[in-house]
Specification:
CATH topology of the largest domain: Glutaredoxin
Helix content: 25-40%
Distance between the termini: 47 Å
Order of helices and strands: HHHHHHEEEHHEHEHEEH
Number of strands: 7
Strand content: 5-15%
CATH architecture of the largest domain: 3-Layer(aba) Sandwich
CATH class of the largest domain: Alpha Beta
Low-confidence stretches: 1-21
Structural class: alpha/beta
Largest sheet: 5 strands, mixed
CATH superfamily of the largest domain: Glutaredoxin
Number of helices: 11
Shape: globular
Number of domains: 2
């Protein structure tokens, strides 16, 4: 959601007379971050207290906070950073509580939901986290502070977010390889499957391919049959994919979606998009970075050596 804020300037006619222009400066209260009581000495409990009381002194009815990103946006980013340190279920509860408070004022509610979309949902955001964005969408859909028209977009986003969500079974699909051979996701037998939706002509995709090609961890897991990488071209220009097919490593499974519906079955906001599945085809990581995938696989390998 895009919020546009403008400033009104009174026009002054050139009458040759001095015109008095009185302006009233609106002072926005500073954001007061809570401090845990001294009696709470456990570091995690102190952080949990700060998160739970983070917005206690914020007036969710005061719209003068909107044009002060140095206050509200910085507080929001600090809050998200704290939520990342909590267990997911606790972080989701706190996010839902905070967003519910924002519904006291429609303007501020839309402002915070706009920031949530920007930081937690947009593909280029380093803080993107769909699991934290889902509670935001749920509040938007349920609140009476928003009109039905305001709920159309969050409902669409929620539908997308719930597709192939972490902890759920991934949607099966068929693919066609370079020689015309066919396969299906659920036919792959490996401890982990890395779904790599990409376009071989995009620069970021090429960088991902090169990094994965040179990954000692991934190559080891592939050699031990603990990892299968399935690269899927998700666009429609198959000739482009065929022309660039040599870019993919020989130890990968490579194909395209002949039905051209993979973008509907999976939430592909950008190219590339990565999903990590376990042997039961359950989504372990959704729309993940290579760093997140490497960390997960390295930890698994350490525990299973």
């Amino acid at each position: 959601m895009v919020l546009m804020f403008g400033c009104k300037h009174a026009g002054i006619a050139d009458t040759g007379q001095a015109v008095r222009n009185d302006t009233v400066k609106v002072v926005t209260p500073p954001f007061t971050r809570p401090e845990a009581p001294a009696m709470i000495t456990d570091p995690y409990q102190r952080m949990e207290y700060v998160v739970s009381h983070f917005w206690d002194h914020f007036d969710f009815a005061d719209t003068t906070y909107i044009p002060t990103p140095d206050i509200t946006e910085q507080a929001w980013v600090d809050y998200i950073d704290l939520l990342f340190r909590l267990p997911l279920n606790k972080a989701q509860e706190e996010m839902k509580s905070m967003m519910t408070k924002s519904t006291q004022n429609k303007t501020l509610c839309l402002y915070f939901t706009g920031m949530a979309e920007h930081y937690l949902y947009e593909p280029n955001s380093p803080l993107r986290n769909e699991e934290l964005y889902i509670p935001v969408l749920e509040v938007m859909i349920q609140t009476s502070a928003l009109d039905d028209i305001d709920k159309l977009r969050p409902q669409l986003y929620l539908d997308w977010a719930l597709k192939n969500r972490m902890g759920t079974k991934a949607t099966d699909f068929q693919y066609t390889g370079i020689t015309g051979q066919t396969g299906a996701l659920y036919q792959i037998d490996a401890e982990f499957i890395l779904l790599f939706f990409n376009d071989p002509e995009c620069i970021s995709c090429k960088d991902h391919i090169e990094n994965m090609r040179n990954s000692a961890l991934m190559n080891r897991l592939i050699a031990d049959r603990n990892l299968a990488i399935l690269s899927i071209y998700s666009d429609r220009d198959v000739d482009v994919w065929k022309k660039n097919n040599a870019i993919y490593p020989a130890n990968w499974l490579v194909g395209y979606d002949p039905s051209f519906t993979i973008g509907i079955k999976y939430d592909l906001k950008a190219s590339p998009t990565l999903y990590l599945l376990d042997k039961d085809k359950t989504v372990v990581l959704k729309d993940a970075s290579l760093g997140q995938i490497d960390n997960y696989l390295a930890y698994w390998l350490q525990q299973n050596q």
